[in-house]
Amino acid sequence: MAESNFVDYVKIYCRSGKGGRGSTHMRREKYCPNGGPDGGDGGRGGHIILRGNRNYWTLLHLKYDRHAMAGHGESGSKGRSFGKDGADKIIEVPCGTVVYNAETGEYLCDVTEDGQEVILLKGGRGGQGNSHFKTATRQAPRFAQPGEPMQEMTVIMELKLLADVGLVGFPNAGKSTLLSSISAAKPKIADYPFTTLEPNLGIVSYHGGKSFVMADIPGIIEGASQGKGLGLRFLRHIERNSLLLFMVPADSDDIRKEYDILLNELRTFNPEMLDKQRVLAITKSDMLDQELMDEIEPTLPEGIPHVFISSVSGLGISVLKDILWEELNKESNKIEAIVHRPKDVSRLQQELKDMGEDEDIDYEYGEDVDDEDDDLDYEYEEEDWEDK
Fold first, then answer.
1. I need a surface site. Which of 15, 94, 180, 191 has the fewest CB within 10 A?
2. Which stretches make up the OBG-type G domain (predicted)?
């Protein structure tokens, strides 16, 4: 089987740059016998920066480049000249990328907008040159500050797709057929379960040039929240959706029971998902006559908008669009800030194993990282950096 290009989970090693050393240079010029110290400050180390890019929709470009390293700051020089700052390392990520510490599970940041920049690791500040340490009783200090050390961390980048409507249903419920019929998306469609093996996005056109984004994920089976089937891996892609469209086929033995099973899987995975607006679509309804629809309707869950549809014949599709648009624009359906919780360490290790990311990422430091501090005998405290 060919390897999928949809990559939504990667582990990479990040290292910011260390700060450059301050200079210990003493001014020596003809006709200036008491030149004194004129050592400049070291440059700042480069940052590791994440930038949202709407042109990416997976993390595939990071899968084969597991090391992100910024440049080191250069040392200061004579004439109070500052050292050059280290080059920042900018990592382009798709909007919806969440970052965690791979060792502790700590939540670090979330990139949700195009062009949004987040400093993941700060570069070390440059050390002060000896010109900063001249006093009335110490006219020629022959020491300077070393630069602050670099920071390093192995992180997990996890993509959660941004969409307005998320499709929720068992395998073969007609999710991909619906997406292909009302958008330009072309997901794989076949008459067997688990045809969809990765998420698909489609833009659904509405009246007056309006539109909304719909996300189709692989079918959920009972026990998906515990890792059965493909559910656990892809359930997170509907965490950000404003509205959930539950899809149950009309030929189901018990439509209400299927809906309750799906609801329970979402509750087990993340209870906050039940706070989202929900709509129920009974698919493949072209096989029903009005009498059967009337019999089924009283058994459907109360308080949830529902509609009988057929993606093949077009039955109920325009009504479904109207309901979705109305629900999306309700004041009660505005997305609140998502609260990201740290990952449990034991569960994190199993998650890394399941995703094939449990191997350590090794990196051997080059000679450029070694400190050349032979002439830097100054012992500084944190307050020495306050004016930097």
1. 191
2. 163-329
